[in-house]
Structures are given as structure tokens and as C-alpha cells.
Amino acid sequence: MQKTFILGAPTTKLMAKQLHKNICEERLFSSIFNKHSKNLHDFLYYKFGELLNPKDKVQEAFVKLWQNCAKVSPDKAKSFVFTTANNLMLNEVAHQKVVLKHQQTSNPKFSTNESPEFLMQESEYNDKLQRALANLTEAQRVAFMMNRVEGKRFKEIAELLDISTKAVEKRIYGALEKLRKEIKEL
Amino acid sequence: MNREALILKWLNNDLNDQEFEAFKALEDYDDLVKLHTNLQHFKADNYDTSTELENVLSTIKSTGAPKTIG
């Protein structure tokens, strides 16, 4: 009895795997989209900036995934869309410096209650920060912003980028030190 | 625990109460918090996953079925 149960488990798993062998099925395709598309968008945004339309590249990459759905297994889907979207970007980008847009939608209280001197200092600080962010390497900026702004932990970023947690730590800490040094100097 | 180890734990949201006190005592605590606060101005554009999914599904449906069927 016990033996049958133990033997049964892998067989069930194998069957489940074969049932979802490809992603030409709207429900499975949609669940892959829901799981990865925002991370892919944020990755492209922090790496290349907003000028090259990261949202469009996400769309294109997933349309290509659908076109190739019989050939791409579910566990390769993430890497397929990341590689495809990254290549679409590289086709357009001439590796100029990426300047991240300063979002003007900050806390409304902030702009009404603070002194003009304070607001001036904030604006200078943010200009310096913007330039310093542009001076990071792409790899540093992606890992750092995913952590500081998107709230992801080192381990999640490591899985997202297919690198070790140690490497993520190194990128993020390196980015932090570089930003602080540049903000002081600029 | 040295400065770098404390900052790494802070970055990874891993500080316990005692470590958090040590972190707050670092001379660059205020600078780190200011940097973190101001970084939020550079957040990526909003991304609405369900709208984007609708868009991609409608593109797929208008361009027809996949090239090959598994």
C-alpha cells in the first residue's frame, strides 16, 4: 500500500507535466503573462529608460512567445520573453546614457507646506541623483532600483536575473556607494 | 557587525530590532534614508498587468492562431 503510494507520486507529476507541455493555451499563457510581465517591464524600464517604450517591447515579446508557443516549454518562457524583449531594445538603442524620468507625482503636502529653501535643496538633490543614476552601469541600476523602489529582496532579484544572490548584493552595494559618492561630489 | 553588513541587511529588509538600533546609530543613517526617500521619485511608470494582458490577447487574436500547433 505504502509502496504503491510512493511509486504513484512521480507518475502523477509526469502526467501533469505532459498535460502542460506547451503554452498554446490561453489560460496557461495568461498565467505566465501575469507572473512575469510586470517584472519584465520594470527590468526594461530601469535598464533602458522609458524613451524606448518598455510597455510595447513587453507586448511584442509576448506576441512572439505566443507565435512560438509549441516550441517553448513553460519553464523556458520567462527566459524567452526576457531575451526577446532585451534584443528588441538593443536593436534600437545606441547605448546612450539612460536618464530616468523624475516623476512629478509626489506627495501634494510636500509642495505646499515646505519652505522655498527646502524645495530648492530637494530639487538640487534630485537633479544630482538623476545624473548619478545615469552614471551607474545598467546591471547596477536594474538590481538597485528593483530593490530600493520595487521592494524586491536580493533572492527575488537573483532569480529574476539568473545570477547568484552574492552577485546581486555586490551590484546593489556597489550602486549605493557610487551614488553616495557622486551626490557628494557633483 | 560592521557598517557594510548592517547596510546590506537594511537593504534586504533583514534587520532585527537590535541591529536596527545599531543601523540608526550609523553616522550616515540620515543620508541613507534621504537617498531612499528621494529614489522613489524615479519609480518606473505604472504597469497595469490586466490591461496589458487584454492588449496582448487582442493582438494575438487579431493576427490569428500560433504558427504551429503542438
From TrEMBL, chain A:
Keywords tagged on the record: DNA-binding, Sigma factor, Transcription, Transcription regulation
UniProt keyword Electron transport, yes or no: no
Biological processes, Gene Ontology terms: DNA-templated transcription initiation
The keyword Transcription regulation is annotated on this UniProt entry: yes
Domain of life assignment: Bacteria
Span of domain RNA polymerase sigma factor 70 region 4 type: 128-179
GO molecular function: DNA binding; sigma factor activity
Pfam families: Sigma70_r2, Sigma70_r4_2
Domain RNA polymerase sigma-70 region span(s) in chain numbering: 33-96
Signal peptide limits: none
Sequence similarity: Belongs to the sigma-70 factor family. ECF subfamily.
Name of the protein this chain belongs to: RNA polymerase ECF-type sigma factor
